[in-house]
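Cross-posted from the bioinformatics board.
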Amino acid sequence: MDLSFTQEDEAFRAEVRAFLQDKLPARLSDKVRKGQRLTKADMEEWHAILNARGWLANHWPVEWGGTGWSVMQRFIFETEVALAHAPRIVPFGLSMLAPVLIKYGSEAQKKHWLPRILDGTDWWCQGYSEPGAGSDLAALKTSAVREGDHYVVNGQKTWTTLGQYADMIFCLVRTDNKGKKQEGISFLLIDMKTPGIEVRPIKLLDGDYEVNEVFFTDVRVPVENLVGEENKGWTYAKYLLTYERTNIAGVGASMAAFERLKQVAATQRRNGRPLAQDPQFAARLARLEIDLENMKTTNLRVLAAAGAGHAPMAESSMLKIRGTEIRQQISDLMRRAAGVHAQPFVTEALEEGFNGPAVGPDFAAPAASHYFNYRKLSIFGGSNEVQREIISKAILEL
Amino acid sequence: MDFSLGEDRQMLVDTLGRFLAGNFDWKTRETVIETAEGWSRPVWAQLAELGVIGALFDEASGGFGGSAFDIGVVFAEVGKALAVGPFLGTLLAGRALAATGETALLEQAIAGEVTLSAALDSDAAQGVADGEGWALTGTQPVVPFAASADRIVVAARTGEGPSLFLIEKGAPGIEIRDYPLIDGGAAGELMLDGAAATLLGQAGEAGAIIEEAVAAGLVALCWEAVAIMDSLKVQTLEYLRTRKQFGVAIGKFQALQHRMATLALEIEQARSSAINAADRFAKGRLEREKAVSAAKFTIGRVGSLAAEEAIQMHGGIGMTWELPLSHYAKRLVMIGHQLGDEDMHLERFIALGQDALATAS
């Protein structure tokens, strides 16, 4: 056994670090470090910088603009980017739709849509969940009825993340009501400017607008926007779930957040001493650090197996559960570290360029908001209970 | 990055696994743990012949392995078979003997000719110079297979600081109150009253040697524990698939499925912690000690979870002496009580982190 990275991997890490040093705007990393809210322009700016280097769609096949990186290189990239406090790559077009198009789309669809994802022409959002179809996604009801060379779509999607910015939405729609519920689903690409689409924001518990409801009333979608075959959409949707995800555990993001937490614990005082020396807080911090170290190695074990050709499927579920638990716990300790100053809700302090006086310690402003916002981690992407179902069926064979 | 064991180590694992399956099966274990000594000398002699004991030590000390991963895989097989014998005592004493240049005695132990044990709590005894030799006084608790050991490496405090000594079976001033252990095997309270002892190495300089030997012991226990967790998981899954209640296999109930999924996830974390401990073993004191304490904490936490869940999901049958599962559960929980428990290692991990900060600033 040898847990060290190869020389090539270390050279690659150095190349990524040099790039980040050189190209990641301090304005953006500063906002991410402070936990301030990113605008659409912020995210687009970072995408463009990565795209200029050819690293935006690093996991795509080389012929469509990918990099040909190994699983380990992708992991290193994702980790370094997070440690440098870069904005996260918005996944909807790049990591969710593109793999489906590349595997199941027509040549014409690939040629048309993939370059537009790369250069930012289209901002995509995901139309999966519905009010009656969350964990039980196949229960979805939004219908698409073929009329000539169009589908007519009626229904409602919800929890559509950043849908307010989107030019396009990829949707799971019902095209058949006979047979098993999984068998009548199709995968449609819909222009958000089509008449009959209405986007309504959902205000979340932290006061932010991040998700939306999307309503469809007699929305006409050209049939060439069907991906793959009619009624085979469930296969494509499932492909997304098994699509090799090298960083579902969010190791880099957790490492960056934990470093920040340690700095806070070293300086923030309670009962006349730093939190890091408060026995209760120190114990919470140490448990978290140990869990994180263990998860890092578990993640590397899964990646090493993936590099050797073993597709991680249910292992991803374990990483999703523990990874989200750890990120939630970090935000939980940040909130606790803020003490009474977790309470003030000064939303201006979450916007870029806020120069007003901080209420309490500077890390406190977003602490409670993040903690509440991060409740989502164990709910989305297949709730942690759904992940336990997958582990139970696929690994434990119960 | 490579998580495979490598060819030589895999061969050791296969040989040892086959040997224990054939020569230390469950029936044998049941008989052995009821004997006065609590272990099998013939089996131990064969293990020595196979080179299993030598795998715990490097070539300079007369062995042919000695890396943390070598230690880990041997103890994983011990865990898998729930083997009883002076494995840990031999490892601890042997590492101390190797570090103090006592390779002749260690070679005899590797050959299976001499049985070793170790009592490494230097605060539990005092040593004073006594003519040519030393005299030890104090009580070392729960010394593994103390009554069977020909030689015991004993830590004691002297005027110079923590020191290591060797005592011989039957020497004056030694009394052993021996007893069986709840998880099989035997141990004893080692009561020293001016016991004649030979100094190992330099007086007052044993602190680092003891720490390294205990770290090797912690790696061993962690790998043993993970193997036991795996075994508990397999046995419990088998039971969930076959035991029927309310007309279905109980593994069909979501309440149990989710608990098993959580347990499986935690066992993978425990495995990662044991791998980390072995990986950091040769990387400098602070890294090594943080990793072994992190691992022992994790193994303690997940170990009691695994033992409790395995018994609970088996229901009444899990409570019986007859079912091997209960013995695996007992061993796993008792590993938590050896060489420092979960709480002690968490506190130690915190203290080591603060040491690191103090050194950095």
